[in-house]
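Bug #77: duplicate submission created two jobs. Keeping one. Sequence:
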Amino acid sequence: MGLEIGIAFAFGALLFWGFGDFLIQRTARKLGDWETLFVVTLFGVILLFPFVYNDIEAAIGFHDSTFLLLVGMSVVLFAAALLDFEALKKGKLAIVEPIMALEVPVTVIVTFVAINEGVSALQIFLISTLVLGLVLVSAKKHHFRRKAWLERGAIVAMAGSIFMGLANFMVGFSSRVTSPLFANWFLDLFIAAISLFYLMSHHKLGKMSSDFSANRKLVLSVCFLDNLAWVFIAIAATIIPIAIAFALSESYIVLAALLGIVINKELLQRHQKAGLVIALGSAIVLSFVTI
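Kept job's structure:
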């Protein structure tokens, strides 16, 4: 029964990221990278504090290795978030999205090298076909021209995918060593503190406050969705293999494509339809063979 719960939490993260990704792009463009990071992580600090209050005193007794793991996780995810926000702000979502799917194989490789987590050959095959499907779903015709990969945001998105793949592993592993809620709270506190220092030193708090007031519903929606997604994926990674948890949650790209069909009446190209079938089929089979 435990594995089924882990799969359910991974799909929950998929839903929250699927609806939140478009909103993050809009928020980063309206507020800025640092401002968005600060607001989202501050929201997480406040939201999670009642649930981790009793764990904070115990955290003082952490071994140095555990504390360094939490700090390392925060630094890597902080860098990954900045790169992702910058890619979404400067690049086109259609260009950036397929590149971001590459964080999954990075997560698989790092998890195997770091802790040699048991993922079967069949699961590796299904993760590979899932990533292939995600890339095809989010790729448009112009992606097959070399010029597309030289557009603004593409290189930044590639760097962000590498950092995010490493961060995925570190979030999952830190959640196992401490707890999913505490790992997320520590992460939010770390990033919020650095973001606040940056905003204060650059005298941007006043502008951020006015931008927040003008876009309150948008920003609060992003805060809610993004924080819940990270909590859900952290819980999933303590129950099922880290690589599988993040591979399933990355299928939010499929959800975005389906929303585009239903809401925006978008027409999928032939390779996108094939990718949709491959990704959905791989995700469903992967979840069943993991249970």
